[in-house]
Design brief:
Helix 4 links the parallel strand 4 and strand 5. This protein is about 35% helix and about 25% strand. With about 200 residues, the chain is α/β, with parallel strands linked by helices. The protein binds 5-O-phosphono-beta-D-ribofuranosylamine (GRF).
């Protein structure tokens, strides 16, 4: 399948997907990486791997670029922009997002990046983690594909939790994309079933 990846930051999730397509058995090719931030390392990572890297902030042009590359799967990998209902409709059930918490905790408006992990520390939860989900019209709200957890210990702070969660993100994002490319995911209402 043809994959398009949308990024905003350092691109460690992008790197995980690149590695997954090269060595991890993902039956898909990343055709284009699009960032809404101009000089971000994620675009460098794409260039280093001979993947088309585009800086684009206009959503209509983003959709057109993805269509031009005949993208079958759009991955939001650290993409810090809410996508419009029009975008969701253009790729219905073909957009997945990685969020650094166990949705529905610590998600939605204002919960992104380090803020998520600070809220986890401040609340005093003992377990957090990451979630891969299909994207629908509401932020961080679509059917959940996969989740995994990390412990929050007394000596953890936002930074140490972020580091542990990022590892889990890379793992479950790759596993979810692999399953999508093998057409093993089916959505029934709010629930996603994996047909192994
Ligand atoms: C990180 O906060 C990660 O938890 C979230 O997006 C941010 C950037 O990730 N998914 P990346 O390193 O750019 O993939």
């Amino acid at each position: 399948l043809n994959i398009g990846v949308l990024v905003s930051g350092g691109g460690t999730n992008l790197q995980a997907i690149i590695d997954g397509t090269k060595f991890g058995g993902i039956k898909g090719d990343i055709k284009v990486v699009i960032s809404n931030k101009e000089d971000t390392y994620a675009l460098e990572r794409a260039k280093h791997n001979n993947i088309e890297a585009v800086y684009e902030t206009d959503e209509d042009r983003v959709i057109q670029i993805l269509k031009n590359h005949k993208v079958d799967l759009v991955v939001l990998a650290g993409y810090l922009k809410i996508i419009s209902p029009k975008f969701v409709e253009s790729f219905r059930e073909k957009i997945i997002n990685i969020h650094p918490s166990l949705i529905p905790s610590f998600c939605g408006e204002g919960y992104y990046g380090e803020k998520v992990h600070q809220a986890v520390i401040d609340y005093g939860v003992k377990v957090t983690g990451a979630t891969v989900h299909f994207v629908d019209e509401k932020a961080d709200n679509g059917p959940i594909i996969m989740q995994d957890t990390v412990d929050v210990n007394h000596d953890d702070d936002a930074k140490s939790v972020a580091k542990k969660v990022l590892e889990v993100e890379h793992k479950i994002l790759n596993e979810s994309i692999k399953l999508f490319c093998e057409n093993k995911l089916s959505i029934q209402g709010r629930r996603v079933f994996i047909n192994e």
